[in-house]
Amino acid sequence: MTADEKKKQAALAALEYIEPGSVIGVGTGSTVNHFIDAIAERMKGAVEAAVSSSEASTERMQQHGIPVVDLNAAGALDLYVDGADESNRHLHLIKGGGGALTREKIVAAASKTFVCIADDSKLVNILGEFPLPVEVIPMARSLVARELTKLGGQPVWRENFITDNGNIILDVHNLEIMEPMKMETQINQMAGVVTVGLFAHRPADVLLLGGEDGVKTVTA
Ligand code: 5RP
Predict the structure, then answer these.
(1) pLDDT tens-place string over residues 110-154
(2) Which of 5, 119, 145, 164 is the most exposed place for a label (fewest CB within 10 A)?
């Protein structure tokens, strides 16, 4: 079974969390694309509207005729479904491989339940093998890079990439994140950082992992 087939399995399993008639939060990435396509195919009438975490997901949902609404109009959400680049067993996540981390963190914060969907390769013991994305105000790129180096990582500028918010991304390599909450706070406090792609203070509530033997449900 390919990683993409595993992602699709996890995405289909997330459909069960949708309350008919609700407005849901929708993340970004290839796993979420399966989720969006599955809503369109199987549950279109059941989703009143979606709050999107990126221009890419907005476009995909609109192509399917799924109404997209602004978070300010939607208010608090019951459900947010999104992928991840890594998860530990506490459901602390690294996100932002697709560069949508800031809006993803906002929608996750606005949601009662965060269901994370992924293939089983994403579950790790210690976060950090996947380079940690940090969204940065462009003028602070070098300053923030120097600060990140002090934490022991090697920041690499994601060239030719601008986020939906007009900022840049530094991907921090070679971190061994033993204390995700502490590191999330430390990096978020750096002047010029918009968001770090560590989701530890607001982890996922449920992790649906697609694998060879079906979908495994992990809770913290
Ligand atoms: C985008 C994200 C994605 O959820 C993450 O990169 C996982 O992507 P994929 O589902 O393609 O493996 O955080 O910013």
Answers:
(1) 999 999 999 999 999 999 999 999 999 999 999 999 999 999 999
(2) 5
Ligand 1, pocket residues at CB < 6 Å: 27-31, 82-85, 95-101, 104
Q: Kindly provide the b/e burial profile for residues 49-88, where b requires at least 16 CB atoms within 10 angstroms of the residue's own CB.
A: bbbbbbebbbebbeeeebebeebeebeebebbbbbbbbbb
> Quick one: pLDDT at residue 213?
96
Distance of CA 30 from the midpoint of ligand 1 (Å): 7
- Domains observed in the chain: 3-124+201-219 (3.40.50.1360), 132-197 (3.30.70.260)
| Active-site residue, from 104, 135, 147, 184 | 104
Distance CA 170, CA 191 (A): 14
- Does the pTM of the predicted model rise above 0.70? yes
42-64 pLDDT tens trace: 987 899 999 999 999 999 999 99
Rounded (10°) CA dihedral 174, 180, 184, 190: -50
Q: What digits encode the pLDDT tens for the residues 59-94?
A: 999 999 999 999 999 999 999 999 999 999 999 999
Is 104 a catalytic site residue? yes
| d(CA 31, ligand 1 centre) in Å | 7
Surface-to-core class of residue 25, CB atoms within 10 Å of its CB (0-12 exposed, 13-18 middle, 19+ buried): buried
What is the pLDDT, as a whole number, of residue 220? 87
Q: How far, in Å, from the CA of 1 to the mean position of ligand 1?
A: 20
